[in-house]
Specification:
428 residues; alpha+beta; eleven-stranded mixed β-sheet; globular
Length: 428
């Protein structure tokens, strides 16, 4: 098929699952995304008085009590993986879960939030008759506190998913800032290409909206403060953009070697044709002004796919809505695509779902595959005041029907960690 060229070869996608503030499942998300519906709303999870930003794309429709960053991140990942593995048909019909490959999970850098710290500080630690403590090796150990500590260990989430889905090898937990979800897919592609495994379950998840996280991003001046009308706050590539909107969500992909997928009669949804990764370590939030890491990242994915820049029909942008990020992504387009950058359609899913942080690269990768599948480019909503300095075809406000064979999905993280993924259509 096209795109094989001198690359490492295409990797098949046989299942996908998505959950975002727009809802649960690919169907609901795709219908709302292409209709220009916003999932951003006023925060109700915790008090917002005196906060500069009072809006988010939190996932509030799951029945969890209490809601902690690791418990929500795990549940989001579990539901996305359930949908992806069910679509792929990779498990036998007898219900046994024996995934024939490795697990790569992009998870937020979890640390104890304020509520859990308060819980730990109030748990008894020296009362032998307390129901919370037990004797073991002549020492007192706080059972409830121990469980809370285990929940917040960064590898716990992947370990539990590995047990549930029967993946092979050591479950990999990774964090590469806002590029994490794309990195999980990249690692799955590379493992399959190396012959380490015939399949990989790749997940990006983030359920970490809580007071402390919101305040930290606010102190970085990264968040939008357009609180009055939440659905209009995220304005990627607009002249009046003022920052991103935090959000939660997850996406999962089942990747397989094409021959493995075909041998078991799986339906192939599309292909990962190329991956590109580059970092500049210039600043904790800003890209190097020379844009070289962004340029190398996109160029690497295109070359890995055996394609040329003019072959790319659409880009699902990182498009956060921060003045710096949008400017640098446009700068990268101009250098990678040349004159093609002015006519090549691009859009930002974050205008509707917000920035799902660690999950963003996986969520937006899934939407990119759906764009190719259906020939429908999601809009960039709230694009009412174009920035004249960003000469792009931003697919403004309403979806656009167009045949798309090759599409790029960009994920550019804080700290200069960048990943681009090049997707191709399934064979007819």
């Amino acid at each position: 098929m096209a795109g094989n060229g001198e690359s490492g070869g295409p990797v098949a996608i046989t299942g996908m699952g998505v959950i975002t503030p727009l809802g649960e499942g690919k169907g609901e998300n795709w219908e709302k995304l292409t209709s220009g519906v916003s999932g951003i709303h006023r925060i109700t999870r915790f008090p917002i008085e005196n906060l500069r930003t009072t809006i988010a794309g939190s996932v509030d429709f799951l029945d969890l009590d209490p809601v902690t960053p690791p418990s929500l991140s795990l549940e989001l990942a579990r539901r996305a993986a359930e949908e992806a593995t069910e679509e792929s048909g990779i498990f036998e019909t007898d219900g046994a879960r024996d995934f024939p490959g490795e697990l790569f999970v992009a998870a937020p850098p979890i640390e104890h939030d304020w509520p859990s710290r308060r819980t730990l500080s109030h748990l008894p630690s020296h009362a032998p008759d307390s129901p919370y403590v037990t004797k073991r090796d002549n020492r007192l150990s706080n059972v409830a506190g121990r469980e809370l500590l285990i929940e917040f260990i960064n590898g716990t989430l992947a370990d539990r998913l590995a047990d549930e889905f029967g993946t092979k090898g050591s479950p990999i937990t990774l964090t590469t800032a806002c590029a994490s979800g794309a990195t999980a897919i990249q690692l799955g592609v590379e493992a399959i290409r190396r012959g380490d495994c015939p399949a990989a379950l790749c997940i990006g998840t983030d359920g970490s909206i809580q007071e402390e996280t919101l305040i930290r991003f606010s102190l970085l001046s990264a968040l939008s403060t357009a609180n009055e009308v939440p659905g209009k706050a995220a304005k990627p590539f607009s002249k009046n953009r003022d920052g991103f909107v935090m959000a939660e969500g997850a996406a999962a992909m089942v990747l397989e070697h094409p021959e493995h997928a075909k041998a078991r009669g799986a339906t192939i949804l599309g292909y990962v044709l190329g991956v590109g990764e580059a970092a500049d370590t210039f600043h904790r939030t800003r890209s190097n002004p020379n844009g070289q890491a962004i340029i190398r990242c996109m160029t690497g994915a295109i070359e890995d796919a055996g394609l040329k820049p003019d072959d790319v029909h659409y880009v699902n942008c990182h498009g956060t809505g921060t003045p710096e990020n949008d400017k640098m992504e446009c700068f990268g387009f101009e250098h990678v695509f040349g004159a093609h950058s002015k006519t090549m359609p691009v859009s930002s899913n974050k205008s509707m779902i917000g920035h799902t942080l660690t999950a963003a690269g996986a969520v937006e990768a899934a939407f990119t595959v759906m764009t190719i599948r259906d020939g429908v480019m999601p809009p960039t909503i709230n694009y009412e005041i174009p920035d004249p300095a960003l000469d792009l075809d931003v697919v403004p406000n309403e979806k656009r029907a167009a045949a798309v064979e090759f599409a790029l999905s960009n994920s550019f993280g804080f700290g200069g960690q960048n990943v681009s993924l090049l997707f191709g259509a399934a064979e007819a």
